[in-house]
Write a structure and sequence with these properties.
The protein contains 15 helices and eight strands. The protein has 327 residues and is of the alpha/beta class.
């Protein structure tokens, strides 16, 4: 009998949720995603110091020997996620997601500019924009910025997505892909209710992604659904059949080492026959639905704050590394 990972790959695109190149080589996903926390973690691994050092040296070379250390670190910081993305693209056949600075999550113009800049960095290195997903937080402003980028042919991945209102707004904006977070939704409900666990089919994160998937397939939206942020393989197997699932190396390993039958749970043909109400989401509707959803409100804010802290840690890491390099 085939293992769960092999069976999952037959019905769902498996994506590696990591900046660890060795893990990507091991599990051979089609695509890979990164975020500020993952890049910061990878940048601290000894095996990737060359990527960090080369990025810092390149920034110094670009700016010249008279540039301040702060300016060099700022430029290297802007380039590091792309540096890891370029290495990842040497391994995978598909796309890599590279995230816009979380501190721009409520800045439409800033997000658009940063998205274009990331694409330009990749294209300078000979990478087509078809292989890049610009990752943006699913605030109203982030969605509107991504809508502009999509019209320019720049594909986007809307992340930190916790509510159906965010998902519908993304679909109506023509976004390429969304990343609804399963595990973080579960975390919130466990804390809010005091429950220790949920059966996989009742897991609030699983239920949320299932509802989004069925809504999209019912109404024929082209936006792809990529479940993310998993806490256990039960959440993953309950979403078998989802367009894509982005999975950490630890859970990829568990899926690979587990044998058993994996039935398809999500199916566009079944969704097409479901009785689902269609909702149009403008800014007022988005704001109202967001305010009414305590979980989405808490987790979106918390996610942006967490990614921002990771970025600050990365800047400090780069400053320390530059000081050592330049003596």
């Amino acid at each position: 009998m085939a293992n769960l990972l092999e069976q999952l790959k037959e019905m769902t695109v498996v994506v590696a949720d990591t900046g660890d190149l060795q893990a990507i080589e091991t599990y051979k996903p089609r695509d890979a995603t990164t975020n500020p926390s993952l890049i910061t973690a990878a940048a601290q691994m000894p095996q990737y110091q060359d990527i960090v050092d080369d990025t810092l040296k390149g920034a110094r070379e670009t700016l010249g020997k008279d540039a301040s250390a702060n300016d060099v670190v700022t430029l290297a910081f802007d380039r590091l996620a792309v540096s890891f993305g370029l290495k990842i693209l040497e391994i995978i056949p598909g796309r890599v997601s590279t995230e816009v600075d979380a501190r721009l999550s409520y800045d439409i113009d800033g997000t658009i500019a940063k998205g274009r800049e990331i694409i330009e960095q990749y294209e300078t290195q000979g990478i087509s924009k078809e292989r890049i997903l610009i990752k943006v937080a699913a605030t109203w402003e982030g969605i509107k910025a991504a809508e502009v980028l999509e019209k320019e042919g720049i594909h986007c991945n809307l992340t930190l997505l916790f509510g159906i209102h965010q998902a519908i707004a993304c679909a109506e904006a023509g976004i390429t892909l969304i990343s609804p977070f399963v595990g973080r939704i579960l975390d919130w409900y466990k804390k809010d209710t005091g429950r220790d666990s949920y059966p996989p089919n009742e897991d609030p994160g699983v239920v949320s992604v299932t509802n989004v998937y069925n809504y999209y397939k019912k109404f024929g939206y082209k936006t792809e659904v990529m479940g993310a942020s998993f806490r256990n393989i039960g959440e993953i197997t309950e979403l078998a059949g989802c367009d894509l699932l982005t999975i950490s190396p630890a859970l990829l390993g568990e899926l690979q080492s587990t044998e058993g039958d994996l039935p398809r749970k999500l199916d566009p043909a079944k969704a097409a026959n479901m009785d689902i109400e269609k909702i149009s989401v403008d800014k007022d509707t988005f704001d109202r639905m967001h305010a009414e959803n305590r979980m989405a409100t808490d987790k979106l804010s918390e996610g942006i704050e967490g990614f921002t802290k990771a970025l600050v840690s990365l800047e400090e890491l780069l400053a320390d590394r530059l000081a050592k390099l330049e003596g």
